[in-house]
Amino acid sequence: MNTIEAFKTVRDMPYRIPLALKEKDVCCSGKHKLLKDMLEKQGFEVRYRVCTFLWSSIDLPEKVSSVQHHDNNTHVWLETLVNNEWIIADATWDSGLKNIFHINDWDGKSNTQPAVKPIEIFSPQKSADIMNNYNDEDILNDLEINGEFYKAFNDWLEEQRASVSE
């Protein structure tokens, strides 16, 4: 599988925020962990980039946005070293969400758009620290605060995919 095929494979895994510790992680962090492994196996130098963003910057329906949650959250994408330049590769939103989000295509050599509007982009070192130190306790705390919102968001995404395939 080449670089572009790897990107498309991960991108088109239906995005879903896990609602339990044992649930498969196909949100931005899980997708980019997988893509990082795939690209590194192909010999690419890859690093995480983490940013903060506001859920309120995404055009969500009232039935989702009205569910209690913290507005400030984090998002992760990858940067890949291509011709001595770090290139953004964000495989977050799957093709089934094309009616509500910009879906990135990647040619393996130029930047994609971040899936969200970043407020603060952390350094590569801080991004790696965040990704490598996020643990079960952090996940459980986040789910306690935002779990119902994540469920409403996941359900809305499923509705959007169903409307694309009809």
User: In terms of structural class, how would the helical and strand content be classed?
Assistant: alpha+beta
Strand order of the largest sheet: 3-2-1-4
N-to-C order of helices and strands? HHEHEEEHH
Query: Low-confidence spans: pLDDT under 50, at least 5 residues?
Result: none
Distance between the termini: 30 Å
So how many helices? 5
Describe this structure in words.
- The protein has helices at 3-11, 28-41, 62-65, 124-133, 136-165, and strands at residues 46-54, 72-82, 85-89, 120-121.
- It has 166 residues and is of the alpha+beta class.
- A four-stranded antiparallel β-sheet has the order 3-2-1-4.
- Helix 1 (3-11) runs antiparallel to helix 2 (28-41).
Give a summary of the structure in a few sentences:
This protein is an alpha+beta fold and 166 residues long.
Supply the key terms.
4-stranded antiparallel sheet; alpha+beta; globular; 16% strand; 166 residues
Give the SSE map.
Blueprint: H1 3-11, H2 28-41, E1 46-54, H3 62-65, E2 72-82, E3 85-89, E4 120-121, H4 124-133, H5 136-165
Antiparallel strand pairs: 1-2, 1-4, 2-3
Helix pairs in contact: 1-2
